Prior knowledge:
This protein has one domain (34-168): Glutaredoxin (3-Layer(aba) Sandwich). The longest helix is centred in the middle third of the chain and has 16 residues, at 63-78. It has helices spanning 19-25, 40-47, 63-78, 95-104, 120-127, 156-168, and strands at 6-9, 14-17, 33-36, 53-58, 84-88, 111-115, 137-141, 147-151. The chain is 36% helix and 22% strand. Helix 3 (63-78) runs parallel beside helix 6. Helix 4 links the parallel strand 5 (84-88) and strand 6.
Amino acid sequence: MNRREFIIKTNSYAIFCTPVLCARSATLVAGALLPFDANTLASLRKTHAGKPFVIAFWSLYCEPCRDEMPEWNAVKRKHPSLPILLVSTDTPADRALIDAFFVKYPPGAVQKWVFADAFSERVRYSVDKSWRGEMPKSYFFDAAHRVEVKSGRVDRAWIEAWATRVSAKPQ
Length: 171
Protein backbone atom coordinates (compact mmCIF):
# COMPACT_ATOMS: atom_id res chain seq x y z
CA MET A 1 0.00 0.00 0.00
CA ASN A 2 1.51 3.35 -0.99
CA ARG A 3 1.04 6.59 0.98
CA ARG A 4 -1.95 7.65 -1.17
CA GLU A 5 -3.95 4.48 -0.48
CA PHE A 6 -6.00 3.83 2.62
CA ILE A 7 -8.27 1.30 4.20
CA ILE A 8 -11.68 2.29 5.56
CA LYS A 9 -12.39 -0.08 8.43
CA THR A 10 -15.85 -0.87 9.72
CA ASN A 11 -16.96 -3.37 12.33
CA SER A 12 -17.38 -6.10 9.74
CA TYR A 13 -15.12 -5.33 6.78
CA ALA A 14 -12.57 -2.99 5.23
CA ILE A 15 -12.48 -1.07 1.96
CA PHE A 16 -9.17 -0.39 0.21
CA CYS A 17 -9.18 2.96 -1.59
CA THR A 18 -7.51 6.25 -2.44
CA PRO A 19 -8.79 9.46 -0.73
CA VAL A 20 -11.12 10.36 -3.63
CA LEU A 21 -12.51 6.85 -3.88
CA CYS A 22 -12.87 6.77 -0.09
CA ALA A 23 -14.90 9.98 -0.30
CA ARG A 24 -17.14 8.52 -2.97
CA SER A 25 -17.52 5.34 -0.92
CA ALA A 26 -18.48 7.20 2.25
CA THR A 27 -22.16 6.95 1.52
CA LEU A 28 -21.80 3.19 1.19
CA VAL A 29 -20.04 2.74 4.51
CA ALA A 30 -22.07 4.11 7.39
CA GLY A 31 -19.82 5.75 9.94
CA ALA A 32 -16.73 5.63 7.74
CA LEU A 33 -13.92 7.82 9.03
CA LEU A 34 -12.12 8.93 5.89
CA PRO A 35 -8.40 9.80 5.65
CA PHE A 36 -7.57 13.48 5.09
CA ASP A 37 -4.00 14.17 3.97
CA ALA A 38 -2.09 16.95 2.23
CA ASN A 39 -3.62 16.04 -1.16
CA THR A 40 -7.23 15.66 -0.06
CA LEU A 41 -8.39 19.27 -0.50
CA ALA A 42 -7.30 19.28 -4.16
CA SER A 43 -9.19 16.01 -4.68
CA LEU A 44 -12.28 17.41 -2.96
CA ARG A 45 -12.26 20.49 -5.17
CA LYS A 46 -12.38 18.17 -8.19
CA THR A 47 -15.04 15.94 -6.66
CA HIS A 48 -17.23 18.97 -5.85
CA ALA A 49 -16.48 20.95 -9.03
CA GLY A 50 -19.19 23.52 -9.63
CA LYS A 51 -20.85 22.83 -6.29
CA PRO A 52 -20.60 24.45 -2.86
CA PHE A 53 -19.25 22.50 0.11
CA VAL A 54 -18.06 23.06 3.67
CA ILE A 55 -15.01 21.70 5.47
CA ALA A 56 -14.93 22.16 9.23
CA PHE A 57 -11.84 21.17 11.21
CA TRP A 58 -12.25 20.15 14.84
CA SER A 59 -10.56 18.16 17.59
CA LEU A 60 -11.57 15.92 20.47
CA TYR A 61 -9.93 18.39 22.84
CA CYS A 62 -11.63 21.55 21.53
CA GLU A 63 -14.61 22.68 23.61
CA PRO A 64 -15.97 25.15 21.00
CA CYS A 65 -15.77 22.31 18.44
CA ARG A 66 -18.01 20.18 20.64
CA ASP A 67 -20.45 23.06 21.05
CA GLU A 68 -20.57 23.54 17.26
CA MET A 69 -21.70 19.97 16.43
CA PRO A 70 -25.46 20.67 16.81
CA GLU A 71 -25.07 23.53 14.33
CA TRP A 72 -23.77 21.18 11.65
CA ASN A 73 -26.60 18.75 12.37
CA ALA A 74 -29.24 21.48 11.99
CA VAL A 75 -27.70 22.90 8.81
CA LYS A 76 -27.44 19.45 7.22
CA ARG A 77 -31.10 18.75 7.99
CA LYS A 78 -32.15 22.06 6.43
CA HIS A 79 -29.74 21.77 3.44
CA PRO A 80 -29.41 18.01 2.83
CA SER A 81 -27.71 18.43 -0.55
CA LEU A 82 -24.92 20.63 0.87
CA PRO A 83 -21.80 18.52 1.46
CA ILE A 84 -20.49 19.12 4.97
CA LEU A 85 -17.17 17.49 5.80
CA LEU A 86 -16.06 17.38 9.42
CA VAL A 87 -12.34 16.73 9.69
CA SER A 88 -10.83 15.66 13.00
CA THR A 89 -7.31 16.96 13.43
CA ASP A 90 -6.67 14.03 15.74
CA THR A 91 -5.20 10.78 14.39
CA PRO A 92 -6.68 7.53 13.08
CA ALA A 93 -5.39 5.92 16.29
CA ASP A 94 -8.05 7.98 18.11
CA ARG A 95 -10.85 6.23 16.17
CA ALA A 96 -12.59 4.87 19.28
CA LEU A 97 -12.56 8.30 20.93
CA ILE A 98 -13.79 9.97 17.75
CA ASP A 99 -16.62 7.44 17.39
CA ALA A 100 -17.60 7.99 21.05
CA PHE A 101 -17.49 11.77 20.49
CA PHE A 102 -19.91 11.49 17.56
CA VAL A 103 -22.26 9.36 19.64
CA LYS A 104 -22.27 11.96 22.42
CA TYR A 105 -22.33 14.99 20.07
CA PRO A 106 -24.02 13.79 16.86
CA PRO A 107 -23.33 16.09 13.90
CA GLY A 108 -25.92 14.49 11.64
CA ALA A 109 -25.51 13.06 8.16
CA VAL A 110 -22.16 14.64 7.36
CA GLN A 111 -18.95 13.14 6.01
CA LYS A 112 -16.45 12.37 8.75
CA TRP A 113 -12.71 12.60 8.12
CA VAL A 114 -9.54 12.38 10.20
CA PHE A 115 -6.00 13.60 9.58
CA ALA A 116 -4.08 10.75 7.99
CA ASP A 117 -0.63 12.25 8.44
CA ALA A 118 1.07 12.30 11.84
CA PHE A 119 2.76 15.54 10.74
CA SER A 120 -0.38 17.69 11.10
CA GLU A 121 1.42 20.85 10.03
CA ARG A 122 1.82 19.40 6.52
CA VAL A 123 -1.93 18.83 6.27
CA ARG A 124 -2.84 22.24 7.70
CA TYR A 125 -0.39 23.97 5.33
CA SER A 126 -1.97 22.18 2.34
CA VAL A 127 -5.35 23.62 3.31
CA ASP A 128 -4.29 27.13 4.35
CA LYS A 129 -0.72 28.37 4.50
CA SER A 130 -1.67 30.81 7.29
CA TRP A 131 -3.47 28.24 9.49
CA ARG A 132 -1.55 27.73 12.73
CA GLY A 133 -3.87 25.14 14.29
CA GLU A 134 -6.61 27.26 15.86
CA MET A 135 -9.97 25.50 16.03
CA PRO A 136 -12.65 25.18 15.12
CA LYS A 137 -11.66 26.35 11.67
CA SER A 138 -14.21 26.22 8.85
CA TYR A 139 -13.90 26.75 5.11
CA PHE A 140 -17.05 27.58 3.15
CA PHE A 141 -16.59 27.00 -0.60
CA ASP A 142 -19.22 28.42 -2.97
CA ALA A 143 -19.90 26.79 -6.35
CA ALA A 144 -16.96 28.67 -7.93
CA HIS A 145 -14.87 27.54 -4.92
CA ARG A 146 -14.34 31.04 -3.63
CA VAL A 147 -13.78 30.43 0.03
CA GLU A 148 -14.90 32.17 3.19
CA VAL A 149 -12.84 31.17 6.22
CA LYS A 150 -14.09 31.30 9.78
CA SER A 151 -11.90 30.76 12.84
CA GLY A 152 -13.70 29.93 16.04
CA ARG A 153 -17.24 28.75 16.52
CA VAL A 154 -19.55 29.71 13.67
CA ASP A 155 -23.13 30.38 14.67
CA ARG A 156 -26.08 28.74 12.97
CA ALA A 157 -27.51 32.04 11.66
CA TRP A 158 -24.30 32.78 9.72
CA ILE A 159 -24.08 29.22 8.34
CA GLU A 160 -27.77 29.28 7.34
CA ALA A 161 -27.37 32.64 5.58
CA TRP A 162 -24.31 31.38 3.70
CA ALA A 163 -25.99 28.07 2.73
CA THR A 164 -29.11 29.88 1.52
CA ARG A 165 -27.02 32.36 -0.47
CA VAL A 166 -24.90 29.73 -2.26
CA SER A 167 -27.89 27.47 -2.89
CA ALA A 168 -30.09 30.25 -4.25
CA LYS A 169 -27.97 31.66 -7.05
CA PRO A 170 -26.00 30.08 -9.86
CA GLN A 171 -22.28 30.83 -9.58
